[in-house]
Amino acid sequence: MKFLKLTGIMLASACIASFLHGCTTSNEVPQLQEIRLDKTEISLKEGETQMLTAEIIPADAEAVLSWSSSDIEIATVDNEGLVTAVSEGEATITVSDGGDISAECTVTVTPAGEEPTPDPEPVPVESVTLNETDIELTRGDTFTLEASVLPENADYENIEWSSSDTGIATVNQDGTVTAVAVGEATIKAEAGGKSAECHVTVTGIPAESVTLDIHEISLNAGETCVLTATVMPEDADDKSVTWSSSNENVATVTDGTVTAMAAGTAEITASCHGLSDVCTVTVIEELKEPEVGDFYYSDGTWSASLNTSKTVIGIIFWTGNPAGDDTILGSDYPDCTHGLVVSIEQLEGKWQSGASKYGQLIDTWVQSNLSGYESMLAGYGYLDGEMLNFMLGYQYTKAIKAFNDAPENAEWPVDIVAGIAAFNESCPAPEGTSGWYLPSAKEASLIISGVYDGNIYEISYSTPILDNVNLLNGIIAQISGAPTISGYLWTSSEVEQYSATSAYCIGASDAAFWNNPKNFSYNYRYILAF
Predict the structure, then answer these.
(1) Which residues touch 465 (CB under 8 Å, ≥6 apart)?
(2) What is the CATH number of the domain that holds 35?
(3) Hey, which end of the chain has fewer CB within 10 Å, N or C?
(4) How far apart are CA 523 and CA 23, in angstroms?
(5) In this structure, are residues 401 and 497 in contact, taking their beta carbons and an 8 Å threshold?
(6) Residue that terminates a domain, selected from 223, 254, 284
């Protein structure tokens, strides 16, 4: 390191041609890059001096340095860098190349006879404490720790915060702790070599509710049903559900799958951390195969003997697959393959009160506006295309409903079908059935005469077949207040193209078909497929 003492204006480095020795140089002189002083701060008493030494970089650079004082009444400097304290105060001594490169030294002058104030010794940190040493947070929560450093005038740059496991809890530099995941972590606050810690326990978000998707269900012995338990909130940490049955002889449960064991009632409980919901399971004995004359109940079951604890809504009058002729019924209700039920309620009314005003066949509208529907014209069962001997009441009723719903038919709806909606309110059809509909001529014949392999039009009032209606009326008589099947019963079948204002009725006492005016009142009963 090369230091130069300069007197006045000093040449620091140069290449001098010496013609006396005949020596020359061709090396380029480097430019000055920096000036450094050996001291940047000094304290002097009035009258004292202090020599400052300047270093030029690079050492062989060519530079002409000059010295100056910011306040010569406080301190002066000569051309060699000798500083003289003049009076109390503070001045800045600057050494410069005359351009942009310079260095400075701050001079503090104190009165003569006074010792300069020494730089204060740093005050060490004695302790760091936190407002909490043990906290418990729920995942996602935050908490701000406050650190206290003693003594209050201690020297330290800042408080450094850290977490032993940022996967469990994090902390930012203002002391805010964020619970990240279930577990434990230690938060440390450190300042001036001293530290304090807070133990953090993060717990999971607790479940607040458990709800089952089904609260009541009836099963046949041997059947199963899957219950779904929903635990809220969605981000609860432990959503495990425990299942139990109040009577495993009646119903068992495994992971929500309920198995019906034997007749009776059991409560299936889904529990999660003290919360629970219950589904009541009623197990009934497996149903026997249906038979004509069985009582049919509002819960969709049947029995040979009247079960007074249930609500009877009808009597089974035919067994088998009712969709054999009716593809629309088979498509809409593929599981209705057991048979047909006739309602125990007998109603009276007109087929179509506005028939004369309308003056047309319903079938004409159906064939023009719907597709896939059979003709509603029953005829007399002798010619191709006559539908007298086909079980088509479901699709006839569905077609008539479409007719009624069409705005152009608002003045002349088919009353007997429009009334099904009200009937469903007072006597709902069980779930899984076809719902109530008006029987076709063939289905009405099954109610009165039972199965007949020939043309049902040939069942004459002079030789009636009344076996089925007599059986049904004997069953209905066991039901208090239920009327027996009687009079003429409307069907959903129209007669022929020349009888636009007539529809078929069947006589309950003669089994014969009658071509009756649609705007006359007769009895009728709805049926359903199950």
Answers:
(1) 448, 449, 450, 452, 459, 511
(2) 2.60.40.1080
(3) N
(4) 145
(5) no
(6) 284
Closest to 494 (Cα-Cα) out of 485, 483, 505, 484: 505
- Using one digit for the tens of pLDDT, what is the confidence trace for 209-259? 999 999 999 998 888 999 999 999 998 988 999 999 999 999 999 999 999
Order the strands of the 339-343 sheet from edge to edge.
302-303, 295-297, 312-319, 339-343, 527-529
Q: Residue 487: which region, alpha, beta or left (left: phi > 0; alpha: psi -120 to 50)? A: left
Question: Closest Cα partner for 75 from 103, 108, 119?
Answer: 108
Instruction: For residues 346 and 197, give the distance between their C-alpha atoms in angstroms, rounded to a whole number.
Output: 85
pLDDT band for position 120 (cuts 50, 70, 90): confident
CB neighbours of residue 154 within 10 Å = 17
Number of domains in the chain: 4
Residue 26 has pLDDT above 80, yes or no: no
Token representation of residue 93: 């001594």
Q: pLDDT of 33-59, one tens digit each?
A: 999 999 999 999 999 999 999 999 998
My answer on whether 165 and 234 are in the same domain is no
| 163-172 pLDDT tens trace | 999 999 999 9
Q: Considering the domain boundaries, does residue 289 fall inside one?
A: no
- What's the whole-number average pLDDT of the chain? 92
Instruction: Identify the helix (H) or strand (E) that includes residue 83.
Output: strand 82-85
pTM: 0.53
